């Protein structure tokens, strides 16, 4: 059974298809959860990871989230993003309940777009979209998102003011978000 068939059957709530889907992608989901927890310095245990894992698949099943997926070949990147987002939700909930957390600013700022760009399947699509931008936008956004340079570093390299860099990055990110969403990648859970 290929990915497209699995998705069609999962949308119809076929139990066997769900079993195949979960078995096929469980390692990826566990990996994404652990990666986000580790990157955030969050003190967690196997029970927390299992809770997040279950939340990921429950959200997809109960919310009919697979309907948002426009292309089956993006399942791994999409699932990694969903797992990462559910992990951030879990950490925020724990913070609200006054649990110990090593505060990591990337977790608490709205960086979902950057997380998507870093996922394995979206990088190639993002590069394709970047190639449609003007040369100036292409250089600035590539330095910022792909090479992870700060606005100040990009301004120094490009020889333009930091405010101009910030404006170009914000506008270009918005263009990229729209393009990625058109391709079925920009949906958040």
Characterization of the model:
With 189 residues, this protein is an all-alpha fold. It is built from ten helices and no strands. It folds into two domains: 107 residues, Rna Polymerase Sigma Factor, Chain: A (Orthogonal Bundle); 63 residues, Arc Repressor Mutant, subunit A. 72% of the residues lie in helices and 0% in strands. 27% of the residues are buried.
Q: What's the CATH class label of the largest domain? A: Mainly Alpha
Separate helix tally:
10
Note the run of SSEs as H and E: HHHHHHHHHH
Determine the CATH topology of the largest domain: Rna Polymerase Sigma Factor, Chain: A
Q: Can you count the beta strands?
A: 0
Low-confidence stretches: 98-110
The fraction of residues assigned to DSSP E strands is under 5%
End-to-end gap: 26 Å
Structural class call reads mainly alpha
Examine the secondary-structure arrangement and name the CATH architecture of the largest domain: Orthogonal Bundle
CATH superfamily name of the largest domain?
Answer: RNA polymerase sigma factor, region 2, helix turn helix motif
**How many strands, which pairing sense, and closed or not: the largest β-sheet?**
none
Q: What's the overall geometry?
A: globular
The total tally of domains equals 2
The proportion of residues forming helix, as a percent range, comes to over 70%
How many whole angstroms does the radius of gyration measure?
18 Å
Mean pLDDT: 76
């Amino acid at each position: 059974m290929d990915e497209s068939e699995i998705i069609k059957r999962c949308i119809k709530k076929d139990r066997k298809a769900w079993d195949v889907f979960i078995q096929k992608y469980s390692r990826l989901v566990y990996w994404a959860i652990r990666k986000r927890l580790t990157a955030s310095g969050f003190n967690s245990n196997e029970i927390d990871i299992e809770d997040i894992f279950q939340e990921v698949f429950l959200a997809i099943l109960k919310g009919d989230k697979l309907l948002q997926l426009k292309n089956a070949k993006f399942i791994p990147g999409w699932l990694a993003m969903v797992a990462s987002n559910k992990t951030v939700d879990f950490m925020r909930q724990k913070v609200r309940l006054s649990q110990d957390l090593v505060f990591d600013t990337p977790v608490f700022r709205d960086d979902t777009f950057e997380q998507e760009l870093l996922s394995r399947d979206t990088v190639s699509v993002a590069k394709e979209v970047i190639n449609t931008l003007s040369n100036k936008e292409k250089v600035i956004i590539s330095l910022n998102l792909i090479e992870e340079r700060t606005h100040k570093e990009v301004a120094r390299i490009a020889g333009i003011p930091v405010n101009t860099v910030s404006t170009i990055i914000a506008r270009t990110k918005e263009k990229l978000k729209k393009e990625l969403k058109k391709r079925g990648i920009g949906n958040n859970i």
